[in-house]
Fold this protein.
Amino acid sequence: MKTTLQILLLSLLTFRILAQSDSVKVEKEKVEEEVTPAWEKSFGLGLSLSHTLNVNPPANSAPKEGFGSTVSIDATLNYIKEKSRFTMRNDLSWTMALYKANGQSPTQSTSDILLTNHDFSLSFKKGGNWYINTIFNTETSVLSLFENNYLRDQNILGPIQSFLNPYAVTINPGIKYETGKGLGISISPYVLKIRGVTSQAIADKDIFFQDKDNRILSDGHYKKSFQEPLGAGLQIWYTKKFGKWISINYKIIANSNYLESIFKNGTITGQFTTNLFVYKGFGITHKGLLKGNFAQSPFKPFYNQVIVLSYKFAK
């Protein structure tokens, strides 16, 4: 009887210890879920190098040799906490391409575009698909460039382009619908766009905004910034990952003003990024950029694309 009672007491004690252990484990997992940050981060770096050689080239043709390089940077920082009505999405894309005709010639830039998009949204209800939002789009360059887009000032004329020279900021308050499967649409009835430069010396060269009237001030200098006519905007984006190998991030931005038809004074921008993953974040990235102005006749949108070897870190 005494032995049986001891076994029973030992069993009860063991059960209590295991129950306490399970309770502590559940509480620990619950706390970890609560303190886990709801931030989605990614960073991608792409690079391509090329060298061309022309033996006995014909007169007035391409240089005998040339060296080109392209650098691509993509980054995202999103706040997407579950059961929160507020979300925030930020992404950055920078593409830079350089070319050097030969060993003696200065390095020339063929592309330098930095784009950022920032979306701040508040849903009508938790877990809903409709949001009140404001999207900020920015565009600028990074490199300091001189005459003929060289990285070196050969004629001592000063820069014609640099960081924030020029720049564009577009503010799009409106309403957004997201399907929850990567597709989103945002409509803004009131789009404010500001364009300009921060350098008075670059402004006075009147390189970027020749089509704007009344830009000369009383002191003889040019205005450094101006506001586009108010208008409406539409943004559509689609983000999707197909298995472990392919991911896409496509975005189309269209704006127009209220005074004229969109086909007379509207603009369109398209950003198309496709990642093909090969091994542990390494892969190939294709980036396409489309920029068009419907005021141009005939309509000839600018399109730029790069293909680079890339590495992407995501968390």
In short: The chain is about 15% helix and 50% strand.
